[in-house]
Amino acid sequence: MATSLPVADYGAFVEKFTLPPDPSSHKLPLAGLTFAVKDIFDVKGYVTGFGNPDWARTHSVATSTAPAVLSVLKAGATGVGKTVMDEMAYSINGENIHYGTPTNPCAADRVPGGSSSGSAVAVGANLVDFSLGTDTGGSVRVPASYCGILGFRPSHGIVSTSGVTPMAQSFDTVGWFARDPAILKQVGEILLQLQADTPTTLIQLIVAEDCFNLLNIPSHQLIEKLVGAVEKLYGSEKIQYTSLGNFVGAKVPSLKHFMDNNASKQEDNIPSLAALSSAMRLLQRYEFKNNHGEWIRAVKPNLGPGIAERIWEALKTTDENIDVCHSLKNELRSALSDLLGDFSILAMPIVPGPPPKLRTEPTTLEVFRAKAFSLLSVAGVSGFCQVCIPLGMYEDLPVAVSLVAKHGCDGFLLNFVETLHKNLELS
């Protein structure tokens, strides 16, 4: 229990402990930094709770530590505890009826975002220097946005998910949070095993104007702040605007299987991205059922509102259109690779606006959630890397923007963020 945590309690931790750096390492790039881990990672000697007491009760103590955790320990960082998460990683709200909801350090009456809620709050509240989370449908990007910090979802398959309880393997990634872009990059260099000569030259910043139009706050302020910083660094000729929805609709033929004619008539909707979201959530439900359906049916765990309905609905999923989902993933990755190349970046929102209020009825959040998953599905389905960058406050609530880069261009994106962040602070 030895720890140097501040007295203030934000409810971020399930349990606190000390994981010292690996003394066998000769080079300690993360020496002196503290970190926390989401309760989805195996840590030797502790039960991986997966956000639910019934899961913890029916699972044994981990006999080994997840490679991602070992990597940062070997790099000299000190672990200080496991953090609260949404039950079975099946929410982007961050509310947990069993362990309590971590307090959003930017807005105490608002949700912290999930499912890596405690990991985001631990960083946002200055309890640790960085933290590890996972991102399947948005579980690093959303809480980073809500808590006013940096959050990185790496390219799918780049960081080992061994020793991490799976949610849906086609989308699961190990992500991380930090307040400082230099620390975000340092952690990335360890987890991604980056070389020092990663390029930093930007070819184009492509702004997805239609995606910014989904925001429930004035979007021009966010765009102007981001574009202004990029123009100072690289010049106005580097800025390009596009309709991402039209591009995706034209380049991803398998989307036709998921198009909703009624949805296309709704206001504030991008039909192609709504279809993309439908495909992502279908495959996610199917893989979740295959991973955990047997346990859920046998144990019948006590689940919180919203999550219970979602999980039991997932257990009804069949394999219809699952093959199409995999084809769609390949088509989207190919299309976006052509759009971005190795050194262009796509700018878009992460969620439709600031964090919702605590204990908002799930039905009230449906429109917000639908828009959110339309935005989140772009990186989720393509497997591209995406970073959340805080852009200050709007009416006393945190707002953010995101940058997306081609699969495998994680080092380039982290370098760009570090350079850009300095100019954002000056603008």
Automatic annotation (TrEMBL):
Residues covered by the Amidase domain: 25-180
Alphabetically ordered keywords of this record: Hydrolase
EC number: 3.5.1.4
Presence of keyword Hydrolase: yes
GO molecular function annotation: amidase activity
Primary enzyme class: hydrolase
Superkingdom as given in the UniProt entry: Eukaryota
Name listed for the protein in its UniProt record: Amidase
SUPFAM superfamilies: Amidase signature (AS) enzymes (SSF75304)
Gene3D superfamilies xrefs: Amidase signature (AS) domain (3.90.1300.10)
PROSITE patterns xref list: AMIDASES
Family: Belongs to the amidase family.
